[in-house]
Amino acid sequence: MPACLAWIAASRELTVGSTWMGRRYAVTTAAGMFFLKVRSEWWPVEQAEQVCALVKHLHLQEFPVAAYRLTVEGKPFALWEGHICECHEFIDGQPLSTENLDHNSAAGHALSRFHSLTSTHSPPCGQLPEGCGYPWPGHVQFFYDRVRSIFADQEEPLVTLGRVMDALTALDPEAIGTSHPDEIAGHGDYHPGNLIFHDGEVAAVCDFDFFQRAPRAYDIAYFLYRTAGVSSRSGGGPVHLERGVTRAFLTGYESDAPNSSPSVPRDAIAPELLRFAWYNCLLTANNTQEPEKFEEWAVDTVVLEGDVELWVAEADEA
Questions:
Q1: Hey, which of 19-28, 45-54, 257-266, 269-278 has the most confident mean pLDDT?
Q2: Residue 133 and residue 229 in one domain
Q3: Range of the structural domain that residue 47 is part of
Q4: Most buried among 32, 122, 202, 287, by the most CB within 10 A?
Q5: Are residues 75 and 172 located together in one domain of the fold?
Q6: Paired strand residues for 77
Q7: β-pairing verdict for 12-13 and 32-39
Q8: H-type alpha helices, the chain
Q9: Cα 289 to the chain's mean position, in Å?
Q10: Which of 64, 90, 116 is the last residue of a domain?
């Protein structure tokens, strides 16, 4: 029996999060406790190699990551029946508490340092599979086609789809003839579920699978959407940014300037946040296949646009 199979048989599966990209296990051995990730068969080996090189670079710079345990051949992962299997240190701690502003500030500080360290690391090559990471035009088109196929014989969802695509086009620098500003090697999935805290500090930043080139503001905007975004009803999309969370996170991000990453103005964050918000409407339609849910999220995003506009204006008034 391969070692990874023996470990899985004696492990506890971690059920938090999606299993679309693979499964995760907590493994207790005589040598201690470890985190085992078994990726889905479709995940590209090239991306796994890039992520492993990144984690090694971050670990050498004493950035808080869960380091790899190497295989007997000295490699950071093993291949088993098409699956990429990785073994990491198990980092004990607590998840980010949205209400804890110190946590949010520490999360901003960690992201700033991550951006600074990736500037001295080999940039990722190519784009991730559809549905992963930054919503490049090809990814948007992929989900547009999927959603159009799902609602092919329903008039109202197709009207909603047209509104969503109009909004995405208006927010896409490539579509309107400009380049993406300040493009960097970003995390791609920086949100509370990928942060572990201990004594109020970030003990580990996890899950670099979506590591890719994207605008600097994207990681910031994505975190704020996922963490500061407040819904008006159960199961709805964000309609409001909680100002205390946004302020704490951005203060943390800028706390090392000019020694770490440069500050990012709100008017650069806002379009990336709204671009992901509209893109997430497509993801919601694709995942639920419910026309009412699709319309509700589109309406919520219109409300969010107004609140984000106010948020940007508040910075000008300060």
A1: 269-278
A2: yes
A3: 3-90
A4: 202
A5: no
A6: 86
A7: unpaired
A8: 3-9, 45-60, 101-118, 137-150, 155-171, 216-227, 243-253, 266-288, 291-317
A9: 23
A10: 90
CA 28, 32, 33, 37 torsion: positive or negative? negative
Convert the pLDDT of each residue in 28-56 to its tens digit: 877 788 888 888 888 888 888 999 999 99
* CA gap 180, 5 in Å, rounded: 44
- Same domain as 251, residue 208: yes
Max avg pLDDT among 24-28, 231-235, 253-257, 279-283: 279-283
Contact between residue 248 and residue 228 where contact means Cβ atoms under 8 Å apart: no
Nearest-angstrom CA–CA distance, 250 and 266: 10
- b (16+ CB within 10 A) / e for 217-232: bbbbbbbbbbbbbeee
Q: At which of 90, 121, 137 does a domain end?
A: 90
Q: Which CATH number goes with the domain that contains 52?
A: 3.30.200.20
Same structural domain for residues 56 and 150?
no
Q: Check whether residue 70 and residue 122 sit in a common domain.
A: no
pLDDT tens per residue across span 105-147: 999 999 999 999 998 888 787 667 777 889 988 899 999 999 9
| Eight-class DSSP state of 71 | -
Rounded CA Rg of the chain: 20
- pLDDT value for 222: 97
Indicate the DSSP class of residue 254: T
In sequence order, the 6+-apart residues with CB closer than 8 A to the CB of 236 are: 296, 297, 300
Total domains in the chain come to 2
Contacts of 23 (CB under 8 A, 6+ apart): 13, 37, 38
